Amino acid sequence: MRAAWYDRKGRAREVLEVGDLPDPEPGPGEVRIRISASGINPGDVGKRWGPPGAPMPFPRVIPHSDGAGVIDAVGSGVDEQRLGHQVWCYGARSYRPFGTAAEYCVVPDALAVRLPDNADSHLLDQAACLGIAGITGYRALFADGPPHGLTVLVYGAAGGVGSIAVVRTPAQRDFVRGLGAQEVFLTGSPHLLDDVREAAPEGVNRIAEVDFAAHLEFNARIIAVGATISSSYSADARPHIPYWPLGFADTNLRLLGSDDFAPEVKAHAAAELTAALLDGSLRIAVSERLSLDRVAIAHEHVERGTPGRVLLRL
Question: Residue 104, SS3?
């Protein structure tokens, strides 16, 4: 099979290789997917880059956790009726060496979520982007119950998870409005605090955060009583916490690590995301579709924060 891989950590163009590797075979309880689209997440880029001197988790890594395609082989214990099903998958690189940046990918059967048999390439592209961003975003907003009737603030919504956002540029602002945002704010605005307070005079009930440490002081000034701040990342591993502003607001802090969500949590989120994608209430904006041979360029697009999702077409 054709695949992209790296044997050491570093810059995309320095370590990513594309060539031929043996076709993988599914083991017990596994399925093999003939990949048509491989979604790329910032986490995939971070795992490839890694801290300087950090060891490789495996001698060779095929990147990317998310993808979509057709099941073409099953291992023992898996219903053979799964053959030919169109699916999207998540967690292909969660504590496993070989992800979806290849013509074939093997995952546990439970991580391959069925799509309609008539799914076209557009739907497969969108489904290939659901995994990490979708499950993390769903957990951030729904873990404490449905957010209906609440005010929700999503940071970085020009990326994978958002619908109401704080973004950096006017181009990103227009892009996020196109996704259905009710209010959009620029992080560099000198009136940011006043603008958010005007939009949410009773305070923000839920915040989906992309850098816990960077915005904590600001978030403490805009939250409603009983608010939840969910974060999937922090640039500072030991951030200073403004205890009393958060305490007086009866704040919940939810720190998210998508690789380690409980299996039933992932499965529930995956089912909800699939239903939303199929009924049209969830739209994934794919901005770049690149061939496998251009995997390094695709990683660089993700590193630069290109609005919308970036994927490989196989």
Answer: strand
* Host domain of residue 154: 133-258
Residue of 228, 253, 257 lying closest to 142 (CA atoms): 228
- Same domain? For 252 and 184 the reply is yes
Enclosing H/E stretch for 6: none
Q: Which amino acid is at 143?
A: A
Q: How far apart are CA 62 and CA 206, in angstroms?
A: 36
Q: C-alpha 270: how far from its chain's center?
A: 12
Which DSSP category does 282 fall into?
Answer: -
Residues 18 and 109 in one domain: yes
90-117 burial string, b = 16+ CB within 10 Å, else e?
bbbbbebebbbbbbbbbbbbebbbebee
Query: Is residue 69 located within the same domain as residue 34?
Result: yes
* Helix 131-142 vs helix 263-279: crossing angle, to nearest 10: 100
Q: At 192, which CATH number?
A: 3.40.50.720
| Side-chain half-sphere exposure of 250, counting CA atoms within 13 A | 5
Query: Which residues of the chain fall short of a pLDDT of 50?
Result: 161-167
DSSP, collapsed to helix, strand or coil, labels residue 205 as strand
Beta carbons of 132 and 66 less than 8 angstroms apart: yes
R_g of the chain computed on alpha carbons:
20
Residues 6 and 125 both lie in one domain: yes
CA 114 to the chain's CA centroid? 19
Query: Is 103 found in the same domain as 10?
Result: yes
- pLDDT at position 184: 85
**pLDDT tens digits for 77-92?**
999 999 999 999 999 9
Same domain as 222, residue 254 = yes
Average pLDDT, the chain: 91
Same domain, 79 and 10: yes
Structural domains counted in the chain = 2
Q: Two tokens at 150?
A: 């609440």
pTM of the model: 0.88
